[in-house]
Amino acid sequence: MNKTKFFRPSLALIGIAAVLGLSACQRNSATSSDPSQANAATSATPSGSQANLIETIYVPGPDDKLHPKPVSFKSIEVPASALQEVISSSPKWYPKDAKVNSITENEKQITVDVNKNFSQQSFWGEHGEKTTELGVYAIVNSASGKSKKPVQITVENDAMSTLGDFDASDAIEPQPDLIVNTPAPKKTPAAAVVKPIKTAMVPTPVPPTAKQAEPTTIPRSE
To answer: Where are the domains of the chain?
Structure first.
């Protein structure tokens, strides 16, 4: 009779498996009965949801300012695509093939995750502080929007360190001062106070009066 090639467990192995299974059941039971452990496991998972829609982005300009630009219709419902338009609209401010992977938001901050091409140190180091500043804050101001929340930039879900000499290790506060000034509404000027003009006193000419008739002398009679 040919011997089978399938593994057949012995009684000893079956007993060991039973003991291990009983131990695992006891650990699961202890965890479920202790709510503090369950809460700790839940709280260890980072919370965050997709960020709010982005309707306006800010792109760097030749005047070293950020200029508002409406998001295209195809990207308005996808925040990551809206931020990608910042890069595609300003290619010289970002490394080649830089990409925004995702954008999430919680009650404290917004997180923008980018690919490794975005964090090329050689690019940011060679292009100077102003290019780096505008490139970073174009992403930060666009992502923060009306919420004014700080923005944490991560690389493939890992912490960012620096971009050139720019410290990007912590969440970055938006900088509205970099946005180009919009024309202020014209104010209605206050009514001008008309001051009286002083003029020299000119004497009014008196019209000549008729010469009075001299009294007629009547000679007396002798």
So the answer is: 50-178
